[in-house]
Prior knowledge:
Blueprint: H1 9-12, H2 24-36, E1 43-45, E2 55-59, E3 63-75, E4 79-84, E5 91-96, E6 99-105, E7 111-117, H3 118-131
Antiparallel strand pairs: 1-2, 2-3, 3-6, 4-5, 6-7
The structure holds zinc ion.
Zinc ion is lined by residues 85, 87, 126, 130.
Amino acid sequence: xxxxxxxDQFFLKIKSVDATIEDKEVIQNxxxxxxAHKKECVGMAANMIGxxxxxxxxxxxxxxxxxxxxxxxxxxxxxxxxxxxxxLKGARATKRYNKITVTYLDENFRPKTKTAVGFEAQIxxxxxxxxxxxxI
Length: 136
Ligand SMILES: [Zn+2]
């Protein structure tokens, strides 16, 4: 089900907690909502649809979900960039790493490890920041 996008900064600054198998509906809603915003949005965190759980959805070549993602390694030095966010107005300056390794559970709650680079790595870092209550 497509959910409205939360813009309340106070709510978005609350740190999310780990998701469980009980959160399947949240996962589906997050995917549906990201799909609905495909043209202007490449990633979404569950708190952006009002649920403080550690779930993010990434729209890269395919749309995929990361549950309870944790950045295990950041490679090299961060670079300066600018990002926009559906929950915020305009673009803001931030620092990102070009390459990261992340552990997470996939949609079927199977443990996975992913090394992402470039734009995909940037999206993942932005969405994991959301889970930690950090908005650019
Ligand atoms: Zn955002």
